[in-house]
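Dear Dr. K.,

Following up on our conversation at the group meeting, I've run the structure prediction for L,D-transpeptidase from Chryseobacterium gilvum. I'm pasting the input sequence below exactly as I used it, so you can double-check it against your construct before we proceed with anything downstream. Let me know if the numbering doesn't match what you have in your notebook.
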Amino acid sequence: MKNSFFKKTILYTLLLSLFLVSCKKDKEKISDQSTSSSGTLPHEAKSDSVKKEVKESIPPAMQENGFYNAFILPKDKKLRDSLYSVFSKKYNERERYAILALNRLDSKNRWNADTLVVPAKIDTTLMSYSPFPMQLDVLSEVKKFVIFSYEIQAYGVYSNGALVKWGPTSMGKKSAQTTRGLTFANWKKKLAISTVKSEWKLPYNFNIHNSGGIGWHQYDLPGYPASHSCLRLLLNDAKWLYNYADTWILNPGGATTKAKGTAVMVFGDYKWGGRKPWRKLLSDPNANNISVEEMNTLLKPNVEKMLYEQTNREKVADSIKLAKMAESPVEDSETAPN
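The predicted structure tokens came back this morning:
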């Protein structure tokens, strides 16, 4: 009887030991998975990393509502390269493009920041994160309008009052700021040469200040105002605007302007040396939003001028079209094919 009891005791002890070892392995496995899923590199893991991740994680409800997360970038280049591998695996090419655009960066300057603001729910069109109002009734009669905000380094495009596109820009640096106010698109060229430095090639350049040589075009977006007065854009945005906007119409010989192109406005002031505006999205998803009231106050005094130039351009374009039709040889009805 004693022998039987002793055997059972040993058996229970062995089973309990196996259970404790199994639990320990499972716990270690869960801990490893938690560290891996957080995107933290192995050398950065700390004893309280699991607890910290739980504390800082964003609830699913907040993610669905479009809140923003922070992707922290280490200073060390090797560590950044390793983290970029994590970044590339987590997000596809279009998602990475959108994230960089929100941070006013292009792929060349992707690590020109210590933190990337990342939306919890990524919209690759960027329209879900527009700082500009989606509808402006004050522009309902204006067929095409492009606006650039210095404060948030972003542009918006309106067609009859509806926002159709927006994106990042890098405008004039502090010592060479872009001219503010209402202007109109002039000439365009698929590949222009900078008047500041001949080595600088400017793809899809669209001039808006002819005498000042200011226009929008593709060039580096480093995450802050860095240009020599021009309005830098991502390549895709520069192409899109190149095809969207209307040019001026010149008199024969090109000496004077017969009609102006698409209305363009640059407004606001950048807080030089201050915190980058888009970083504020981490604490307030609406931090960069420009209100309808602010836009109305800005645009109302200029709408009459926009409409006048729009109407004038349509009349000039129609008269040119009619003149060309009149100049074309009209076939004799007897010789015209049936």
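Two things stood out to me. The longest helix spans residues 2-37. The two ends are 119 Å apart (CA to CA).

Best regards,
J.T.
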